[in-house]
TrEMBL record:
Its EC number is 3.1.1.-. Hydrolyzes acetyl esters in homogalacturonan regions of pectin. In type I primary cell wall, galacturonic acid residues of pectin can be acetylated at the O-2 and O-3 positions. Decreasing the degree of acetylation of pectin gels in vitro alters their physical properties. The keyword 4Fe-4S does not apply. It comes from Durio zibethinus (Durian). This is Pectin acetylesterase. Its main location: secreted. It holds the Pfam family PAE. The chain crosses the membrane at residues 20-38. One of its GO terms (molecular function) is hydrolase activity. It comes from the Eukaryota.
Length: 427
């Protein structure tokens, strides 16, 4: 595992599994996860991506205190996290990052997940690299490199928001304990020094970005009143949009996740009172109620959203979108128009938030998904830039109140610094 390319591949295999958890069967995403390259039109990023051999591997800690409250992964195993202690001026500062990995919306998909690291610590890697926002190298992570760093593993399938009351009492062996896991992790980290934090940032990518939004205010409430506490959701702004056939695929999917795992109890009361709970899990509703300062990082052409919300496989029976959904460069002008409409919906869903003085955002026009925890997209010479700022610089400007930090990129294909994924290479 010392080879960074190998690690990158492992990472993408994991992505493949995540997609597989939501995408309809019959589509072998795992195949093209094996040989992924960035868009070759951009020579700076064509070299496949390199997680840097200087990466620090950080061991998994199983959360033994979870036994007491029954805060188990889907399969009943103990949840876990990776911790790297801060140093120097970062000793009292804490950065938490919640891992992503889709959701499970049925007994079947949750049962499948039990046999993976996303549902059981029995399958979790014992060592993971800390890179990007978790990197301890000032050149790659100028503002946070010496903070206490925690990567929270995701093993409940409902963005750390499931409730045991929803478990089946008939021999279906699935634990819906996401909310309990969140609480147990918080208690553990508070005892490790988080309770004395001076500065803290809760972050997460994808389903972990959604978990960040759900738990942001609770995180804030656990920390000292005079501490600076903020939240950063990366690629977690899932849109409540219809697919290309006009079906609300994502709505139906979230409806099932929320019903199955009893997620409503973790959502904001004001929202659940007014509308059906599955609507309250969409970030555009969540952010209306978050009081803690928030930063949203999301590509306007988030490939996960394009492949699962806008053009899920079932919405394209004739394969008109089969290349475009895998490589934005293969889209024709009609399809680009549809994608611009999707970008418009994202910008529109954020329009009120954009006026919020304390908020920050970075909406770049790249065909990518998570961008904060990889060196190549977070802060390096090849990283995407908007107004010449990397994501790391923009997040730092916002966190430390250096300047207003709300970047919205011009529409595709205007930004030559993007790392655009190409999933067609190995097809
Ligand atoms: C338990 O109940 C659920 C929901 O009614 C059902 O789908 C599932 O098949 C049941 N499991 C068993 C083992 O009977
Ligand atoms: C999606 O929409 C089409 C056309 O409106 C409809 O025929 C089809 O049944 C819908 N599919 C699903 C899964 O709802
Ligand atoms: C783009 O492709 C779609 C599906 O194949 C087709 O219906 C549409 O006419 C094409 N648009 C252009 C401008 O070629
Ligand atoms: C962009 O930022 C870099 C430093 O991050 C700086 O060296 C460069 O001059 C800037 N370019 C422009 C066009 O402002």
């Amino acid at each position: 595992m010392a080879n960074p390319r190998l690690r990158a591949l492992t990472w993408w295999r994991k992505w493949a599994k995540r997609d597989w958890a939501i995408v309809a069967v019959g589509f072998t995403i795992i195949l093209f996860a094996l040989t992924l390259h960035f868009d070759s039109r951009n020579p700076a990023t064509s070299s496949t991506f390199d997680l840097h051999s200087t990466d620090d591997l950080v061991p998994l800690t199983l959360l033994h205190r979870a036994k007491a409250t029954g805060a188990f992964c889907l399969d009943g195993s103990l949840p876990g996290y990776h911790f790297h202690k801060g140093f120097g001026s970062g000793s009292n500062n804490w950065l938490l990052h919640i891992e992503g990995g889709g959701w499970c919306n049925s007994i079947k998909t949750c049962n499948n997940r039990k046999g993976t690291a996303l549902g059981s610590s029995n399958y979790m890697e014992r060592l993971v690299p800390f890179s990007g926002i978790l990197s301890r190298h000032p050149s790659q992570n100028p503002d946070f490199y010496n903070w206490n760093m925690v990567k929270i593993r995701y093993c409940d399938g409902a963005s750390l928001a499931g409730h045991p009351e929803s478990e089946f009492k008939n021999g279906t062996e699935l634990f819906f304990r996401g909310q309990l896991i969140w609480e147990a992790i918080m208690n553990e980290l508070l005892s490790l020094g988080l309770s004395n934090a001076k500065q803290a940032l809760l972050s997460g990518c994808s389903a972990g970005g959604l978990a960040t939004l759900i738990h942001c205010d609770d995180f804030r409430n656990h920390l000292p009143k005079d501490a600076t506490v903020k939240c950063l959701a990366d690629a977690g702004f899932f849109l409540d949009e219809p697919d290309v056939l006009g079906n609300y695929t994502m709505r139906a999917f979230y409806h099932d996740v929320v019903e199955l795992q009893g997620v409503a109890k973790s959502l904001h009361k004001n929202c659940v009172k007014r509308m059906e709970p599955f609507k309250c899990i969409f970030p555009q509703e969540i952010i209306k109620n978050v009081r803690t300062h928030l930063f949203i990082v999301n590509p306007a052409y988030d490939f996960w959203q394009i492949q699962n919300i806008l053009v899920p496989v079932d919405s394209d029976p004739y394969g008109y979108w089969s290349s475009c959904r895998l490589n934005i460069q293969k889209c024709n002008s009609t399809q680009i128009e549809t994608l611009q409409g999707f970008r418009g919906s994202l910008v529109n869903a954020l329009s009120k938030f954009q006026k919020n003085k304390e908020g920050g955002m970075y909406i770049n026009s790249c065909f990518i998904h998570c961008q904060t925890w990889m060196d190549d997209t977070w802060h390096s010479t090849n990283s995407p830039r908007v107004n010449n700022k990397t994501i790391a610089e923009s997040v730092g400007d916002w966190y430390f109140n250096r300047k207003v930090s709300k970047q919205i990129d011009c529409p595709y294909p205007c930004n030559p610094t993007c790392c655009n994924m190409d999933f067609t290479r190995s097809l």
